[in-house]
Structure formats: C-alpha cells, structure tokens
UniProtKB/TrEMBL annotation:
It comes from Pseudooceanicola antarcticus. The keyword Cytoplasm applies. The lineage of its organism: Bacteria, Pseudomonadati, Pseudomonadota, Alphaproteobacteria, Rhodobacterales. One of its GO terms (molecular function) is uroporphyrinogen decarboxylase activity. Catalyzes the decarboxylation of four acetate groups of uroporphyrinogen-III to yield coproporphyrinogen-III. Residues 19-28, 139-155 form the Uroporphyrinogen decarboxylase (URO-D) domain. It catalyses: uroporphyrinogen III + 4 H(+) = coproporphyrinogen III + 4 CO2. Belongs to the uroporphyrinogen decarboxylase family. Keywords: Cytoplasm, Decarboxylase, Lyase, Porphyrin biosynthesis. This is Uroporphyrinogen decarboxylase. Its EC number is 4.1.1.37. One of its GO terms (cellular component) is cytosol. The record marks D74 as: Transition state stabilizer. Homodimer.
C-alpha cells in the first residue's frame, strides 16, 4: 500500500491536496463526545478507559474522515504518573499538587516508573491501531517539558506562566531538575506509545511563546532536541511534529535544530511569512484560527483557501492554529474540510 498521506507529507512530499486533521478534534463541540464523556463519568475517567477513549478518538474520523486520528488523552497524565495529584474543576480547568520546593520534587517517582499509571493509554493506542481505517494515521502525543512544568509548578493554568518564571529566577537548579525528570518521562511515555502503534508523535509546547532568548533555547528547543534524538535512536524513522506555540521568529530553524520532521504553527504568524521562512526547511502544519470554527461563512472559506495556497509549494498538513473550542459548530468543520479538499 502506498504510504498514508500524512506520512508522505512528513517525509517532505508536496501533495496536490494537503492532508488534514484538527487539534482537539475529539472534544466537547461534538454531541457524540459529550455523550461518551457522560458515560465515562468525567474527563479523567474517560482518558483512563481504553475502550471509551478509543471510541471518542474514532468519532471525528467516522464523522469527517480526517487523515489522522490523535490519541485521546491529556498532557497532564504524565505529571500524575510521576506522582502529582491531578483533578479537573468543571468550567475552570486542571488543578495539580504543586512542585516549588526540593521536598515537593523529592517525592516524585523516577521516569522509569510512569508506565504503571499510563498503561491504559498504551491500551487505547493498541485498540486504535487495530480499529482505524487503513488510510488514517495514528498520532500519539505528549506535552513538552516546559509546558508541563508550568502546570506542575503553578498547580493550574496561568495566563503568563508567572510561577514557573519565578522558580527559574529563585531556584534554577530545582527548575532544571524538574525539566530533566519531565524530559526523561516524556521519552519513556512516547516510546511506549510508539511500541503500541503510534505512527507519528507530536510534542505540544503550548507555552513556548513565554520563553525568550537563551531560556527559549535551553527550555524549549534543547528538551525537544533530546527527546526527538532519543526517540529516533530507539525507533528509527519515527516522524515527530513539534509545536512550539507562539514561538514567532523562533519558529525559523526550529525543525533543523531539534530534528523535528514538521513544525506546527499557531495562527499568530501569517502563512505567507511561514512559507518563506519555516516551510523552506520542510513540512509545516497549520494554521487556521480556531475562531472560524465558531463563526464560519465566507471568512472561513477565504482564510482556508489562503492557507492552502500559501503552503501549496511545499509539504503541508492542514490544521488549526490551536485546539477547536467547545462553542464551535460541527458544520463549520465540514465546510473547512470541503474547502481544503476542493483545492485553493
Ligand atoms: C495545555 C494542554 C492541556 N492538554 C493539552 C494541552 C496542550 C495543547 C493546548 O494548548 O491545547 C493537550 C490535549 N488535551 C486533549 C488532547 C487530546 C487530543 C486532541 O484531541 O487534540 C490533547 C493533545 C484532550 C482534552 N483535554 C481537556 C479536554 C476538555 C475536557 C472535557 O471534556 O471537559 C480535552 C478534550 C482538558 C484540559 N487539558 C488541559 C487543559 C488546560 C484543559 C482544560 C481546558 C479545556 O477545558 O479545554 C491541559
């Protein structure tokens, strides 16, 4: 069988129509997701139930025929596997026990111990690799160490990642020890996802944009480089997508410096700029503003066409610039897909 379209794009092939999938494609905007989540009880129970997690992963594939499915899980399961407490407050978001002192750090488990908690996730991957259509690529993922550290240090999401920056200023060795534990844990976690059947893995560094200068290189770029090098040593040829969200100018050269096969772009950079400055090095993914999934109409169509056209001279995977939101209209998703597949 010819390679799946996403794998071809990741190898650097320019396709007549870009393959497409969507961040958070299994999510609350879909009535079938809300029904399965209710059946599971709550979000974390859904993540740790392999049958139901596989079911929600498959829902957007059945409804839309996306070219890729992304494993249904969360970036905060790794801290939980390292021993942090994790819970979700409805309407607010995640809460974790915090790591701000050496004593907090000392109770965390070693990276090699994460599999006990995470084994249901590997089971979900196994189910999916059996049940997905032959043409659909299975993407595994993890949070990048910096982004996961920001949640572990603050115990919640923060607008400016202030607590993590404060820890860097006050106790850099402790911050770096936490980042190191997360780097090793991420390698373990993604390695097992690949062994279970993930064909591509993606590193989500949602808060990379709050790092600047040398801190960006040390805490966003360098951990990504190490994780990618180790994964490729263990699993030769495994493609990796890196998403240093809101990296701006730092998107330039990021793939070369880290060994990533593809850089995912948020919608704060224009597709014309990114084609000239980032896609020259290889595959890019992105970058339609997710607000169009709420507002739809002519603006959605025009913007989608512009992105397809801007990236048409090189390898491109169509996606949003960030996750789809719960208030999105499922019909707008169909309109985006139809527009991409109709060509620019
Ligand atoms: C920062 C972050 C998290 N999780 C994730 C990130 C990085 C990407 C990003 O910036 O969006 C990544 C993530 N979260 C989820 C996935 C599954 C795969 C996918 O569909 O893309 C992925 C890849 C499911 C989820 N993760 C979460 C949901 C919603 C939970 C629900 O059903 O109530 C889903 C579908 C919950 C979650 N999980 C997290 C937050 C802040 C929240 C609450 C915010 C919200 O409610 O949207 C942490």
């Amino acid at each position: 069988m010819a390679d799946k379209t996403i794998l071809r794009a990741l190898k650097g092939e320019t396709l007549p129509t870009p393959p497409i999938w969507m961040m958070r494609q299994a999510g609350r905007y879909l009535p079938e997701y809300r029904a399965t989540r209710a059946q599971a009880g709550d979000f974390l129970s859904l993540c740790y139930n392999p049958e139901l997690a596989a079911e929600v992963t498959l829902q957007p594939i059945r409804r839309y025929g996306f070219d890729a499915a992304i494993l249904f899980a969360d970036i905060l399961l790794l801290p939980q596997a390292l021993g942090a407490d994790l819970w979700f407050v409805t309407g607010e978001g995640p809460r974790l026990s915090t790591v701000t002192t050496q004593a907090d750090f000392d109770v965390l488990k070693p990276a090699s111990d994460v599999h006990e908690v995470l084994s249901p996730i590997y089971e979900t991957v196994k189910i999916l690799s059996r049940e997905l259509p032959a043409e659909t690529t299975l993407i595994g993922f993890a949070g990048a160490p910096w982004t996961v550290a920001t949640y572990m240090i603050a115990g919640r999401g923060t607008p400016d990642q202030g607590p993590a920056h404060a820890l860097i200023a006050e106790n850099r060795p402790l911050f770096e020890a936490l980042l190191e534990r997360l780097t090793l844990g991420t390698i373990e976690y993604l390695s097992k996802q690949i062994e279970a059947g993930a064909e591509v893995v993606k590193l989500f560094d949602s808060w990379a944009g709050s790092l600047s200068g040398e801190d960006f290189d040390r805490y966003a770029l360098e951990p990504a480089r190490r994780i990618i090098a180790e994964l490729k040593a263990r699993h030769p040829g495994i493609p990796v997508i890196a998403f240093p969200r809101e990296a701006g100018e730092k998107y330039v050269g990021f793939a070369k410096a880290t060994g990533a096969d593809c850089v995912a772009l948020d919608n704060s950079v224009s597709p014309e700029w990114a084609a000239a400055n980032v896609q020259i090095d290889g595959c890019v993914q992105g970058n339609l503003a997710s607000k169009h999934m709420v507002t739809g109409g002519d603006a959605l169509v025009a913007e989608t066409r512009e992105i397809v056209k801007a990236f048409s001279k090189g390898p491109h995977i169509f996606n949003l610039g960030h996750g789809i939101t719960p208030d999105a209209d499922p019909e707008n998703v169909q309109l985006m897909i139809d527009t991409v597949r109709a060509g620019a």
